[in-house]
Structure formats: C-alpha cells, structure tokens
Design brief:
The protein has 490 residues and is mainly α. The protein has four domains: 66 residues, no CATH class; 102 residues, DNA polymerase, domain 1, CATH 1.10.150; 182 residues, Intergrase catalytic core (hpI Integrase, Chain A, Orthogonal Bundle), CATH 1.10.443; 82 residues, no CATH class. The chain has 21 helices and eight strands.
Length: 490
C-alpha cells in the first residue's frame, strides 16, 4: 500500500508536451477480498496518509473477521460531523450565537490537533494543544470552554450512533480561579447613590438621556437583570401595582430559557410609574429602546468617571455593566437572605454559583456575621456577677452560710414533718467531727441516711469519712460527701 499523485501528459498549443500531477492524492491497496483498488484521498498529504493508515487498519480487522459497526461514520471527516452538530444545536433551541461559538471552538481544536477522522482523536493531543494555547496567553476559563465544547461534540456523536465512545470523557478543566482575567467587584451603597445622583444630572450620551440611564442603572442594581434582558423589556412586563409590584423576563431573552417573575421594590415601582405617566409611554413600547447592550460597559464607565468612582479599583477589579448584577447579588446576601432566596433571585442553577462567584463578601461582613452569634463565654464582670449569684440560695436571696447557721429554721419549712431533720443533724455532726478531728466516731447513726427511708435495697449509703469495711454490699460504690449523698439517691 502506498499513496501517490496521478500523472498525465498534456500537449500544449505550441506543440510541447508537459507532465502534470493531480491535485488529490491516491492510495493503492489490496482490500480484504484480495482485490487491488485505487482510492482517491485528499489534497493534503498528511490527511491522506492518516486516511490510508485507517484504511489499512480496517482491512486487517476485516481479514480477522472483526466488523466495525461505525466504519461508515468513521470514514466521514470530522468537519462534516461538526456541521451536523451545529445544526443539531439550532434544532434543539439554542441561540445562533451559542451554536456558532461552540462550532468555532471545536473547529479550532480539530484543526490545531490535526484531527481528520474520528479514530485519530486522542485526549493527550487535545490536552497538549490547550496547554500550548494557555502558554500563548489564552485564559484558563477560555481553555475550559474549548474543552467543554469538544466534549459535548463527541458526546453527541456517541448519542447519535456515530462512534462508540467519547475519547475526551476523562479530561477535566483547570481551576479558573487561579487565572482570573476580568474580576468584577460590587459597588458599595455609597457608590451606587453617588452614581445614580450624578447620572440623573448628566446629559445625553450613548443615545440615552440622563434619566433613561438612571432608570436603567436603578433597575439593574435592584433586580439583577443582564444587559440583554434589560434591553428586551417592554412596559407590559412590569406590574406596577402598589401592593405587589413585579417584573417578568421572557423565555426568549432569559439565559436559562425560563420565564420568571421577580418582585420589584415598591420605591422603584413608584419611580417607574411616575416615569410612565410623565413620558406617556405605551404598554407595548420597549422601556429602553436605544440601549446598546454591547456598549453597556463603556456607557457605565463614562458615568462612573463623572461620579469620581474608579472603573478599576486598586485590586484590579472592574465595575463594568455586569458588575451591577454582582452588586445586586452581594447586597441580597448582606441583607440577611438565605442561600436559597439569593439563588432564586439571581436565577442561578446552584446556590454555590451565587455565593462563590456573584457575591463579594468582605472582612467587614464576616465580622458582622460573627458578632451576631450568641454570646457563649463570659467577660470579667459577668463572671463576678455569676459568682456572687452562685453564693445565694435562690429562695430568699440569702448566702449559703445562712443555711448552716439557721438550719433549724429552714429545715421545717422545706421538709415534711415525718422526715428527720437531716440538715441540722448533719451539720451538727460535721461540726463535732471537725472540732474533734475524728470523723469516724461522728459518722454513725444520726449522720447516716438509711436505705429504708430512701426506698433502696442496699443497707446504707456511704457517709463522710467511711472506710472500705463499712461500704455497701456491692463494694463498688464510691464514697460521697455532704448533700451529694442525698441527691445521688434520687
């Protein structure tokens, strides 16, 4: 088997004869049935060599009795499959911009890796190509988008029975947080008020008057709509009722292809109601008909400069038009909303996207959250106060010393008449034992609480100063002292 270009002799008008080659390459081979064939290939020599190698492999498999059910699809160039994939995206409802962008990303990978047919695709070559693009200056986030497009393309080929497996399935993107090229920031409430005040006073630019830009920024900062969604709004999409004002974005312009109705602040609804009445709009009119979505960042930047607000702060973060959406999500989180509420208002697929990407919580917010936690420890004054309170009985607010000195007065009041005056006897016995320094002699009958009085089967409880020989039958009860003897029998 070998590839070649056909040659033929051509006689010119002046009588000379020249030899010319064909533009395409050809391969000469013997198929599995032993028939010699000449098959046309391509104009590119590399692609022709790859196709010839593929044909040789198929012939060897056919001779061994192995039949590839995808052989016909594998003979088609990947560019043809990619064209069908683009049409598939359009047919299933994706926008023309998304289908074009995905098509171009896959095409760049196929051309960069020199893949012509499906069996030639290797994950290692794709990984190497993306690494080279990264070294050339392409961001990690963009590289991940290229990889995702290619993986979706081959997953579609598997689902459409054009190949048996996705060769890029195990590849994973890199951490895009390590290489953020255009980090956005959230505007502070002070910056927002200053921006709106200056914008309202400024003249017309970018085909919008000062009031139009003011209302546009106000809506973007209080509802979090994207530029495309704001540009598509018509007045009948606003419910400006005084009780429950709301705003609706249609499926055609929503990024997640879902129509959603969100609550609108009452003070914002009042301003739009007044604007609608003063300018005599129609319900079918677009609210911002001359708003150019592609120039939104430039328009906002000019108003920021007029207000003295930096477009890029000292940390390198930008305040472009999409930063209005970041500001909205950030202030929703700071307002005390739950993660689910913030996710719903931002219309994100996961709460992690809302919290990690769109909310910019600083150290001040973290400290404020920590300060809201319940107090678990005690400062010095509180500890002294609690220590003083611990020295009181909690009944008539007298110190515990009074119990020992006036036990005869307290015992009848808090114990039944049938119950022996255990407190007074115990205190007296303890006093005698302490004076005589002989607790063994004073741990007898009066100072001992017998089990009959407590309803226990054991003969008695351990008393103060009891030796091991006088312990209960079990022999394992530890000695206890004071009031704890009585409490342990409850």
């Amino acid at each position: 088997m070998f590839i070649f270009k056909r040659k033929r002799k051509i006689k010119l008008g002046n009588g000379k004869t020249v030899v010319r080659q064909s533009q395409k390459w050809y391969v000469w081979l013997t198929d599995a049935d032993g028939i010699k064939r000449t098959i046309p290939l391509f104009r590119d020599k590399t692609a022709s060599e790859q196709r010839a190698a593929q044909l040789a492999k198929e012939i060897e498999l056919a001779k061994a009795g192995v039949v590839n059910p995808y052989s016909d699809e594998h003979k088609r160039p990947l560019t043809e499959h990619l064209k069908d994939f683009r049409q598939y995206l359009l047919d299933k409802g994706d926008s023309a911009d998304y289908a074009r962008l995905t098509h171009n990303r896959v095409r760049f990978i196929l051309a960069g890796c020199k893949f012509v047919y499906t069996p030639e695709v290797q994950a290692s070559k794709v990984q190497r190509y993306l690494g080279e693009r990264k070294e050339e200056g392409l961001g990690i986030k963009s590289c991940n988008h290229y990889l995702t497009a290619a993986k979706n393309f081959f997953s579609w080929m598997v689902a459409d029975k054009r190949t048996n497996e996705n060769p890029l399935l195990h590849l994973k993107g890199r951490n895009a947080k390590k290489d953020v090229r255009h980090e956005r920031r959230a505007l502070t409430p002070e910056e927002i008020n200053k921006l709106l005040t200056v914008t309202l006073e400024n003249g017309k630019h970018h085909n919008l008057s000062g009031r139009q830009r003011y209302m546009l920024y106000l809506l973007a900062l209080t509802i979090g709509f994207r530029a495309k969604e704001l540009g598509s709004l018509t007045w009948h999409r606003l419910d400006l009722s005084e009780s429950e004002p709301s705003i609706t974005v249609t499926v055609a312009y929503a990024k997640n292809d879902k129509e959603v109705t969100l609550p609108l602040r009452r003070d914002v609804a009042d301003q739009f109601r007044q604007w609608f009445a003063e300018d005599a709009f129609s319900m079918k009119d677009r609210i911002f008909p001359k708003f150019n979505e592609a120039k939104g960042a430039q328009m906002l930047r000019k108003d920021l400069e007029a207000a003295g607000i930096p477009y890029q702060d000292e940390c390198g973060r930008y305040a472009d038009f999409h930063a209005c959406r970041h500001s909205f999500c950030t202030h929703v989180i700071r307002s005390g909303a739950t993660a689910k509420e913030a996710q719903t208002l931002a219309r994100h697929s996961t709460s992690a996207l809302t919290l990690d990407v769109y909310s910019h919580v600083g150290l001040y917010d973290e400290r404020r959250a920590v300060e809201r936690l319940p107090k678990l420890g005690l400062d010095g004054k509180s500890m002294e106060k609690n220590r003083a309170a611990a020295l009181r009985t909690g009944t008539d607010n007298r110190p515990i010393d009074v119990v020992g000195n006036n036990s005869e007065k307290l015992t009848p009041k808090w114990t039944p008449k049938r119950t022996p005056s255990a407190y007074s006897e115990s205190n007296q016995s303890a006093k005698v034992g302490n004076k005589q320094k002989n607790p063994r002699e004073n741990s007898g009958g009066r100072n001992r609480l017998h089990s009959r009085r407590l309803g226990k089967k054991s003969d008695h409880l351990a008393a103060v100063g009891m030796r091991e020989s006088t312990m209960g039958r079990g022999g394992i009860e530890p000695p206890t002292h004071g009031f704890s003897v009585r409490c342990s029998t409850d």
